[in-house]
């Protein structure tokens, strides 16, 4: 009788372990949300006219992002002390980095950057039009579960004609990556009611509707955005503007997205 009881108890324990393993396995395959951070960093110069990359990094780290899109990044320019800003920010945030040049500037380069916790598999810089040439930096990265996504950081022209002329090449970029879940973020220099944003809304899901980012002291409008590819690929968990008005002349945006 005692042996039978022990046997039944052993079977019960074995079944419990199997059930626990099944539950754990299912939980581990669930895709974790991705926190996306966008910031025009004004080459690290704040509203107090102080150049401070440590401060920029602290703002980024405060949101614990998985991926970061940056605009107005300097690489080895005179005005920022010949510092490779992406290398510095990558070290301070403990992330991988990529940089895409828009123009040569003061002995160095100026353009867009990306920071990511995930391995970078490929990167490409696309030129965009403008009185001052612009660009879009596209990075393909591999998530923890081996799925791939594309992250694009861009900064459109200050003049209307340049922004409108950017829509066609941006559309071609999106087609290049239409097989993968995609995030497009940056400083678009365009308000929500503009033709530029209307055209992007027709192609992508705007995750930051109504999030005012500029001017930095008391934001009254939006020119910075985080878009993602269609709702069949992503769900938007949350989005917000950070209450930071000194480190740069733009406020940072944060969206939490989840792959379906």
From TrEMBL:
The keyword Nuclease applies. GO terms for molecular function: endonuclease activity. Keywords: Endonuclease, Hydrolase, Nuclease. Residues 39-250 form the Endonuclease/exonuclease/phosphatase domain. It holds the Pfam family Exo_endo_phos. It comes from the Bacteria. This is Endonuclease/exonuclease/phosphatase family protein. It comes from Flavivirga spongiicola. The lineage of its organism: Bacteria, Pseudomonadati, Bacteroidota, Flavobacteriia, Flavobacteriales.
């Amino acid at each position: 009788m005692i042996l039978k009881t022990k046997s039944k108890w052993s079977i019960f324990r074995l079944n419990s372990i199997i059930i626990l393993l099944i539950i754990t396995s299912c939980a581990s395959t669930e895709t974790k949300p991705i926190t996306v951070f966008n910031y025009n960093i004004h080459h690290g110069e704040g509203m107090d006219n102080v150049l401070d990359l440590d401060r920029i990094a602290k703002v980024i780290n405060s949101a614990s992002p998985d991926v970061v899109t940056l605009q107005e990044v300097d690489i080895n320019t005179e005005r920022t002390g010949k510092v490779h800003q992406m290398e510095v920010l990558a070290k301070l945030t403990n992330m991988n980095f990529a940089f895409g040049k828009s123009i040569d500037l003061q002995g160095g380069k100026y353009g867009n950057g990306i920071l990511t916790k995930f391995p970078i598999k490929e990167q490409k810089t696309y030129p965009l039009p403008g009185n001052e040439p612009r660009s879009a930096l596209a990075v393909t990265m591999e998530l923890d579960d081996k799925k791939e996504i594309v992250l694009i950081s861009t900064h459109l022209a200050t003049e209307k004609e340049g922004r409108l002329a950017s829509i066609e090449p941006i559309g071609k970029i999106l087609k290049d990556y239409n097989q993968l879940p995609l995030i497009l973020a940056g400083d678009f220099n365009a308000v929500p009611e503009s033709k530029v944003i209307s055209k992007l809304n027709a192609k992508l899901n705007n995750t930051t509707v109504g999030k005012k980012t500029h001017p930095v002291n008391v934001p009254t409008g939006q020119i910075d955005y985080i878009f993602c590819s269609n709702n069949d690929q992503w769900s938007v968990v949350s989005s917000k503007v950070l209450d930071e008005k000194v480190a740069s002349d733009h406020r940072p945006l944060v969206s939490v997205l989840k792959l379906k």
